[in-house]
C-alpha cells in the first residue's frame, strides 16, 4: 500500500503503547476497532480483526510507556505530517486531520493487507472525542479525563448489579410489605421508580441509556458477517466491554420476562404468607430461593429462540456477536422465505417487541411514551 499516505500512529492503554507508521486504510481500521470499547492493547488488537481477513496485520510489540501527552508532543516536534494518537483510558483520539476519522462511518474490508471494494461499518461510543493534538494535550492535563473509560466501566457494572441483583431484594421487600399488589403493577413499579443505586434514575432509564449504541454495533456486526462470509470477532468475556455491557434489544425483552417470572414465581411459592411478620431469617431464605429461581430460569430454553436459554442469548449480545437461527430451524419453518434463506447464509434473530408491550408503556421497547401511544392507536385502529 505504498500509494497511501502514512500516519504516525500510537495506541496507549495506560500501561504500554505501540508506535507504527500505518497506511491510511490500516490506520482507519485501527481507529474503527475502538468501536469494540477496548481497554487494553490486547483487546484492541482482537477488535482489529473485525476489519481484516486473510493474512493478519503484524502489529508491533507493546512498549512500557511514558505519558501519552509526552508521546504526542514528541510526534509534534518530529517531521511527520500525519498523526494519529489513540488513548484508551481517556477515550480521546488526537489526529492532525480529525475529519479523516469520523466516529461513525464506513471503511473498506482489508484482505491480505489490501483494501477491497467491500465496505464495513463502524460506530464509536459517543463518549469518544477526536480532536486536534493541541486540544488533546489540553484535555489530558485534566486528571479526571484520564479515567473516563474506567468510569464508563464502573457505571456499566453497577447497572448490571442493580438490574440483576438488587431487583431480587426489591421484590422480596415489596412483597413483605404488601402481597396484594398485582404482578403487572409491581413489575411496572420496579421499572419506573427511581433507585438510589442508579443516582436517582429508574431501571427503565438505564436500560435505554446506551441501547442505541449497542444495537448499532450489533447491526454493524451482522453486516460484517455477511460481507466477510463468516462471523466477525466479538469481545472477550474477561473484558470490561463484556462485564459493563449495556443491554441490547434481545436482553431488554428477556429482562422484562425475567422480572415478571420472578414476581410470579415468588407469589406462587409464598402466596399470602409473603407479607406480615417475616423474620430476618425468613426474608433471607426467600431471597436466596429467588436468586436460585433466577438461575434456573436463566438456564432453561426460551420459547421462540431456537431452543437457546436466556443465558446463551444474552452472552452473545454482550460479546457483540449477532444471534442467529440455525439453518435446520429455518428449513423447518413453514415460511417459504425462511426456507429459501436457509441455504443463503445466517438468519439473524431480531427482536422488535416485548411480550408485555400492550400492557403498559413501561414494558415497551420504545423509549418515548408519546411514540408508544401513537403506535398503540395505529394498532387499535387497524384492528377495530
Describe the structure.
This protein folds into two domains: 6-141, no CATH class; 150-321, no CATH class. Mean pLDDT is 89; it is low at 336-342. Helix 5 runs parallel beside helix 10, helix 5 (148-177) packs across helix 11 (280-298) and helix 10 (249-270) packs across helix 11 (280-298). Helices cover 47% and strands 14% of the residues. The chain is elongated and about 75 Å long. A hairpin with a 4-residue loop joins strand 5 (83-87) and strand 6 (92-95). By secondary structure, it is an alpha/beta fold. The protein contains 15 helices and eleven strands. It has helices at residues 24-32, 41-48, 68-77, 133-140, 148-177, 183-192, 203-208, 211-228, 240-243, 249-270, 280-298, 310-318, 327-332, 336-341, 369-382, and strands at 6-12, 16-23, 52-53, 63-64, 83-87, 92-95, 104-111, 114-123, 129-131, 324-325, 347-348. The strands form three sheets. A six-stranded mixed beta sheet has the order 4-2-1-5-6-9. A three-stranded mixed beta sheet has the order 3-7-8.
Amino acid at each position: 500500500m505504498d500509494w497511501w499516505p502514512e500516519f504516525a500512529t500510537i495506541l496507549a492503554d495506560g500501561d504500554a503503547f505501540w508506535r507504527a507508521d500505518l497506511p491510511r486504510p490500516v490506520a482507519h481500521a485501527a481507529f474503527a476497532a475502538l468501536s469494540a470499547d477496548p481497554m487494553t492493547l490486547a483487546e484492541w488488537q482482537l477488535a482489529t480483526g473485525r476489519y481484516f481477513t486473510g493474512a493478519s496485520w503484524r502489529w508491533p510489540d507493546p512498549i512500557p510507556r511514558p505519558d501519552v501527552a509526552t508521546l504526542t508532543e514528541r510526534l509534534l516536534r518530529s517531521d511527520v505530517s500525519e498523526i494519529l494518537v489513540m488513548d484508551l483510558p481517556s477515550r480521546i483520539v488526537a489526529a492532525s486531520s480529525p475529519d479523516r476519522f469520523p466516529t461513525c462511518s464506513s471503511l473498506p474490508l482489508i484482505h491480505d493487507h489490501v483494501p477491497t471494494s467491500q465496505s464495513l461499518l463502524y460506530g464509536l461510543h459517543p463518549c469518544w472525542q477526536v480532536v486536534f493534538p493541541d486540544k488533546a494535550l489540553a484535555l489530558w492535563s485534566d486528571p479526571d479525563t484520564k479515567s473516563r473509560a474506567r468510569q464508563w466501566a464502573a457505571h456499566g457494572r453497577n447497572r448490571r448489579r442493580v438490574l440483576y441483583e438488587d431487583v431480587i431484594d426489591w421484590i422480596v421487600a415489596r412483597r413483605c410489605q404488601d402481597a396484594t399488589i398485582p404482578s403487572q403493577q409491581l413489575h411496572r413499579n420496579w421499572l419506573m421508580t427511581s433507585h438510589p443505586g442508579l443516582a436517582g434514575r429508574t431501571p427503565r432509564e438505564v436500560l435505554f441509556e446506551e441501547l442505541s449504541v449497542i444495537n448499532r454495533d450489533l447491526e454493524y456486526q451482522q453486516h460484517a458477517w455477511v460481507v466477510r462470509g463468516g462471523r466477525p470477532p466479538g469481545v472477550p468475556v474477561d473484558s470490561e466491554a463484556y462485564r459493563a455491557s449495556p443491554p441490547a434489544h434481545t436482553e431488554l425483552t428477556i429482562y422484562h420476562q425475567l422480572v415478571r417470572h420472578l414476581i410470579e414465581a415468588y407469589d406462587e411459592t409464598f402466596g399470602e404468607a409473603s407479607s406480615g411478620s417475616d423474620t430476618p431469617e425468613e426474608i433471607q431464605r426467600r431471597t436466596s430461593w429467588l436468586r436460585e429461581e433466577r438461575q434456573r430460569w436463566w438456564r432453561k430454553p426460551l420459547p421462540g429462540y431456537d431452543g437457546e436459554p436466556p443465558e446463551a442469548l444474552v452472552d452473545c449480545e454482550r460479546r457483540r456477536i449477532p444471534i442467529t437461527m440455525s439453518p435446520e430451524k429455518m428449513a423447518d419453518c413453514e415460511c417459504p422465505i425462511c426456507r429459501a434463506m436457509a441455504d443463503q447464509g445466517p438468519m439473524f434473530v431480531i427482536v422488535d417487541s416485548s411480550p408485555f408491550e400492550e400492557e403498559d408503556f413501561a414494558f415497551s421497547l420504545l423509549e418515548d411514551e408519546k411514540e408508544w401511544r401513537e403506535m398503540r392507536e395505529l394498532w387499535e385502529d387497524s384492528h377495530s
